[in-house]
Design brief:
This protein has 279 residues and is α+β, with helices and mostly antiparallel strands. It folds into 2 domains: 18-72, no CATH class; 84-278, Muramoyl-pentapeptide Carboxypeptidase, domain 2 (2-Layer Sandwich). It contains 10 helices and 8 strands. It has helices spanning 2-28, 33-46, 60-72, 133-145, 159-172, 177-180, 217-225, 240-243, 257-265, 270-278; strands spanning 84-85, 101-102, 112-114, 127-129, 151-154, 197-201, 231-233, 251-254. The strands form 3 sheets. The chain has a 4-stranded antiparallel β-sheet. The protein has a two-stranded parallel ribbon with strand order 1-2. Bound molecules: zinc ion.
Length: 279
């Protein structure tokens, strides 16, 4: 009997530890180890949509935990019952704008300039706040030095433009509010109203806006390097239940180099980092 245990024990241990190690790796491939430890509990508490982590092998224990989570959570794309005005001014780089906190309809930045002043391709069509241009210029120059092409496909949008944008998506999707709320912000809730947020694309996908950006050279380079220039991806993969939006690999918001670096070092997503300064 004893020799049987000797053979089966290592096998048992292997089946127990291997899936955890693999899951850990899958989650970690886009982030740092620190981030997973710190934010794991957020994800476990509120995640509903598991489509993004379906590749991860699930052990018996994990699937039991997930069932419990689903019954406790609400739908991640929904707006809360109570909506508040932002606690900081729209001019403040650290103002939290999300599904619960909206900008006043009257807010518009006063220092808008053409995005092309940063040297970004297609920039002549869009406006951004002057405060972000210097760092954006550095990022564009460094990306070029690394053989990366970046273009801009959306930037500042006024409150009224967001009214039109949201209605456009509603009309296009048979007034399916739930679906549209997964990717388009209602007026006042859009980071684009800040003038510090932009949507990137690249020549690799013909300057198109959308999911294909994630797998381009530019998309990968930005995901790794944007924080060094003060930019953060607002709606990262796997954090839908925290941000309220589906993964948007192209949508970045500028919060300044000091802040973005601090958020990176604390392994925090933009949403959680800003909550720390606003709530
Ligand atoms: Zn965007």
């Amino acid at each position: 009997m004893k020799w049987k245990i000797l053979i089966y024990m290592p096998l048992l241990l292997l089946t127990f530890f291997l899936p955890f190690k693999t899951a850990d790796y899958m989650i970690n491939k886009d982030t740092t180890k620190k981030e997973v430890t710190k934010e794991k509990e957020w994800v476990e508490k509120s995640i509903v949509d598991t489509t993004d982590i379906e590749e991860i092998p699930i052990t018996e224990t994990e699937s039991t935990q997930k069932e419990e989570v689903v019954t406790e959570s609400s739908n991640w794309w929904e707006y809360p019952d109570e909506i508040f005005e932002t606690t900081r001014s729209g001019d403040d780089l650290l103002v939290l704008v999300n599904k619960q906190y909206k900008l006043p309809s009257t807010y518009a930045p006063k220092d808008l300039v053409l995005a092309s002043t940063s040297g970004i391709r297609r920039g002549e069509n869009y406006s951004l706040r002057k405060v972000i241009i210097e760092d954006l210029k550095k990022m564009i120059n460094d990306s070029k030095d690394n053989g990366i092409d970046l273009s801009i496909v959306s930037a500042y949008r006024s409150y009224q433009t967001q009214v039109d944008t949201y209605n456009y998506w509603l009309n296009k999707n048979n007034n399916d509010v739930e679906y549209v709320d997964t990717f388009s912000a209602r007026p006042g809730h859009s980071q684009h109203q800040l003038g510090t947020t932009l949507d990137f694309s690249t020549n690799e996908i013909g300057d198109a806006l959308g999911d294909s950006f994630a797998n381009t050279k530019a998309g990968k380079w930005l995901a790794e390097n944007a924080y060094k220039y003060g930019f953060m991806m607002s709606y990262p993969k796997g954090y839908e239940s925290i941000t309220g939006y589906k993964f948007e690999s192209w949508h970045y918001r500028y919060i300044g180099v000091f802040n973005a670096t601090e958020a990176f070092n604390q392994a925090k997503t933009l949403e959680l980092y800003l909550r720390g300064y606003n709530l």
